[in-house]
Design a protein that fits this description.
Length: about 130
Amino acid sequence: MQRMAFADKNVMTLLILAAIAIFSLPLVLPHITHESMIYHIYLHMIAFMVSIFLVIVSVLAYYRGRSRRLLFMMLALSMLTLAEFVNFITLTGNVPALLLPIINVELAHLLILAMLVLFMTGVIKMG
């Protein structure tokens, strides 16, 4: 019975990743002939997909364990997913570079910093 639950999670994860790949095709296809950009776009698309997989695993782990460390790890992976999504849509040219005007920093960089802080918080022993 436990084996079946594991297989269902794999199927669910594969369906989510396949849906992301399919829905991202209209964003990727216009750049398919740009050799210098397509690999960069694929890199961020794959990183986005892997980060979604990690968020799914971390959400399941958090709901199973309900510890503060798992919560911070889940939030950190969510920040990584959001950062990769921002990088992906920016690279495809659908959204201009998202700069925070006051500090002149890209949103994706700020999200990665937030991810690192959340990971650090999860790693350091919380009272």
